[in-house]
Amino acid sequence: MLNQLDDKATETIRKAAAAVVRLHTDFRKEKSGRSGNLPVPYFFHPFDVAKRLYHWGQATVPRIIAALGHDLIENLKLTPEDLFTEFGRSPGVGEGINIIINLTFLPPEDISEQEAAALKAAYIEKLAGLSIDNIIVKEADRYCNAKDFEVAKPNYAKKYFYKALPIHKALILRQQELNGYEENWPIIRKDLAEFLDKSGLVLG
Questions:
Q1: Closest by CA position to 66, among listed 83, 82, 89, 90
Q2: What is the pLDDT at residue 35?
Q3: Fewest 10 Å CB contacts: which of 73, 129, 188, 200?
Q4: In 3D, which of 112, 69, 67, 111 has the Cα closest to residue 87?
Q5: Residues 6+ apart with CB under 8 A from 194
């Protein structure tokens, strides 16, 4: 299924993309402590997530805005109002920023690794109960990070992906809510199978 985005939607996405590049210019993947510390400009990652949504036939303005900006609050400590300033207020931007807020995970800095892991697990569980828009953007984010781990820490890639099991289960259960489900689910399922082949999950 082709992604249906008109000229106005495309311009909204271009504005957000330009802002993400500018904001993340001095922030590199290796500084994030995630995805194997790949020494590349960080904006490669949100662009990868947005491209994955296109590949899956799931591109809408809110989802692409969320994909592009999903780490801005975590990495740069921006506020939702900062995001509106950068992205504008065109149709779909507000919904995208709401997804970004839902996807943001900022645990207290003065807690143990065990406490942080417990908070992250609770965050994943909560996210799995939200709308399909939140779930599919998080799934694309997780997939792209796992692909990075295949390069930097290949033995960890599947373990990392499996940590988001509630997200994967939610997507499988709610697959018929996806855009162009009958045509696009086989594409998505094939990607998930790269990391869930031995999980015992029935991908449908």
A1: 83
A2: 47
A3: 200
A4: 69
A5: 146
The rounded distance, in Å, linking the Cα atoms of 181 and 202 is 17
Average pLDDT over residues 123-152: 96
**Domain assignments of the chain as residue spans, ordered by start:** 7-196
Contact, 5 vs 179, CB < 8 A? no
- How many angstroms separate the CA atoms of 203 and 142, rounded? 17
| Residue 72 to residues 21, 39, 51, 111, 129, Cα–Cα distance (Å) | 11, 18, 18, 22, 23
Phi, psi of 179 (to 5 degrees): -60, 130
Write down the CATH number for the domain with range 7-196. Answer: 1.10.3210.10
Which DSSP letter does residue 36 get?
G
User: Under 8 Å CB-to-CB from 22, ≥6 apart: which residues?
Assistant: none
Q: What is the pLDDT of residues 100-117, one digit of tens each?
A: 999 999 999 899 999 999
